[in-house]
Specification:
heterodimer, A: alpha/beta, 11 helices, B: mainly alpha, 0% strand, globular
């Protein structure tokens, strides 16, 4: 459906996208994940024909976006970053313009507008000027505009920014539903979002793909690096680093020692990674929190049985930055993600 | 011309959703009528002569039109809606032409709302409807060119203020350039070129009720040229 080959884009002297290739099949929901400035937005702008690539090609349904942009724009619904809207119109007038733009007429037009308004819950503000709308409503109007003409391809640049938690869940559900029959590419810097809605993930860093694969594969790679910070004190005299290392070996959930230090008063501070567990895609977030509770219990029981006093147990979530370090640094093995 | 109608309708509707169009129309009417009655001393002259009224139109339009066109692209870029507009299945020229038509329609409404002035003057003296038609056609053609030029400046400007100032300066220069040529002496090459460029010089014939196809062509060509230039400016941005 969508194929990018060696895409490159430079703005002035900055190279924002450095040779990115990927393909997206029909009916997939693909997430572009990466920190700000990773090139997510630039890639989406190229796919929608707003920017032309400096080199490389982007094919949508087999057609090059620079060759027949109008045909491609017709098939795409696009929500640009931060959902820009004409503030001098009401949502009703705005969707009217979009229906005009998409060539919708008569009964079909009314049906399309009604459907978009219901899907994005815009009813209460339908006749209020956009200027007066909250960020959440603006974002939803942007989304309504993108799905209005029932496009095969949806390109959503950070679709849930500015929404409250309930709205985020609603919009994610909407995207999942749309993903049943459409091809969706969305960008985000929120890991949970990818886990919640995407079937495939492309992780971008500094304009290149750091890793790509199914959500399960990437999830596994990331979950493998679940870490716990421990502070311990031993009641046994003469208990040193070596003893602690061998004791850790008997911990059922133990993976590897990342750092270990002996502090004043015979206290140890150590940072350990837990053993990799398979987590299952969309249910990943819930499963992970359950698993980390189990891990906590295991560590507590282990400490008791080893005669250690547990002073601190701090499960540590990897931040996105650390994930990038892990995925981009060749020394830290990327067991799940395909390079 | 894909996109012409949707863009035209949206822009036209939006200009009447905000006070912009209304204030400009009122400003135009007050200024032109005030100029006629107070500055040119229409009553004091004791002659039903409207040549001064039409003579100042290019200068008035050089201020009024930029106030309307300054938004057209500068505001789209600021709000980020340019990205939305340019990812719709439209060609650049259709979009540009739609925006042009919407601004032009507002200017034409303002000009036509000024009709009571010559009609009223018509009661005071004898007016040739043919001359009046020529004068109005001239004003509308100047407005078309000014709107296309204003939109082009807006497509190059970073914000509305610089779009406004840039358009006013450029339009005033184009209106007044034939005054410069009189210093150069008539008949010289430079003077001919400057006269040919002047928005006001081509307008003069219409003011006397003379329709010259070369003048007509000048305004149509200027308008189209700047519309294409705007579309080109917008299209080229994709590659930057």
């Amino acid at each position: 459906m969508i194929e990018a080959k060696e895409l490159r884009k430079s703005y002035d002297r900055v190279e924002a996208v450095k040779g990115v290739s990927f393909s997206v099949e029909r009916g997939q929901v693909v997430g572009l994940l990466g920190p700000n400035g990773a090139g997510k937005t630039t890639i989406l702008k190229i796919l929608t024909g707003y920017h032309c690539p400096t080199s490389g090609t982007a094919l949508v349904g087999g057609t090059d976006v620079t060759e027949d942009p109008i045909a491609i724009k017709r098939r795409i619904g696009y929500l640009p970053e931060s959902a820009p809207l004409y503030t001098d119109l009401t949502p009703a007038e705005y969707l009217d313009f979009m229906a005009d733009a998409r060539g919708l007429e008569g009964a079909e037009r009314k049906k399309a507008i009604d459907k978009a308004v219901v899907s994005c819950s815009l009813g209460p503000v339908f006749h209020r000027p956009v200027e007066e709308l909250s960020k959440g409503y603006r974002q939803r109007l942007g989304l309504a505009q993108a799905i209005l003409h029932d496009p095969d391809i949806l390109i959503l640049d950070e679709p849930t920014t500015g929404l409250d938690p309930n709205q985020i869940l609603e919009i994610r559900q909407l995207i999942r539903d749309l993903g049943q029959e459409k091809t969706v590419i969305l960008s985000t810097h929120i890991l949970q979002e990818v886990e919640a809605v995407c079937s495939r993930v492309l992780i971008l860093n500094e304009g290149s793909i750091a890793a790509q694969g199914t959500t399960q594969e990437i999830g596994l790679a990331l979950k493998g690096e679940e870490r716990v910070n421990l502070r311990l004190r031993s009641q046994t005299p003469g208990f040193g680093k070596t003893e602690l290392e061998s004791a850790l070996g008997r911990l059922s959930v133990f993976g590897a020692i990342r750092s270990l230090a002996l502090e004043d008063g015979g206290r140890f501070a150590c940072d350990i990674s837990l053993r990799a567990r398979a987590s299952q895609g969309a249910a990943g977030a819930a499963a992970a929190s359950e698993a980390s509770a189990e891990a906590g219990e295991a560590v507590f029981k282990w400490a008791v049985s080893e005669g250690l006093i547990l002073l601190e147990l701090l499960p540590r979530k990897l931040s996105l930055e650390e994930i990038f370090v892990k995925l981009t640094d060749p020394r830290a093995g990327t067991d799940g993600g395909r390079k | 011309m894909k996109g012409f109608l949707p863009v035209f309708r949206r822009e036209f509707r939006a200009s009447f959703n905000s006070p912009v169009a209304f204030s400009l129309i009122v400003a135009f009417l007050i200024f032109t009528a005030g100029w006629l009655y107070f500055v040119t001393g229409f009553y004091a002259a004791g002659m039903a002569d409207l040549s001064a009224y039409f003579g100042m139109m290019p200068i008035v339009l050089a201020f009024i039109v930029p106030a309307l066109t300054m938004r057209s692209w500068a505001e789209e870029v600021r709000l980020g809606t340019a990205e939305l507009l340019l990812t719709l299945p439209f060609g650049e020229f259709g979009t540009v032409a739609g925006k042009f038509a919407a601004s032009f329609a507002v200017v034409v409404i303002a000009i036509l709302l000024g009709l009571p002035v010559p009609i009223m003057a018509g009661f005071l003296g004898r007016f040739d409807p043919g001359v009046l038609f020529g004068q109005y056609l001239g004003v509308i053609l100047v407005a078309a060119s000014a709107t296309a030029i204003g939109q082009w400046v807006s497509s190059r400007a970073r914000n509305q203020v610089s779009a406004f100032l840039g358009s006013v300066v450029l339009l005033l220069a184009l209106v007044l350039v034939d005054r410069v040529s009189s210093f150069l002496g008539a008949g010289g090459l430079a003077a001919t070129i400057l006269n040919w460029l002047s928005l006001a010089r081509h307008y003069a014939g219409f003011g006397r009720g003379v329709l010259d196809s070369r003048d007509l062509l000048y305004y149509v060509a200027t308008t189209l040229f700047f519309l294409y230039l705007t579309a080109w400016t917008i299209g080229r941005r994709k590659w930057s």
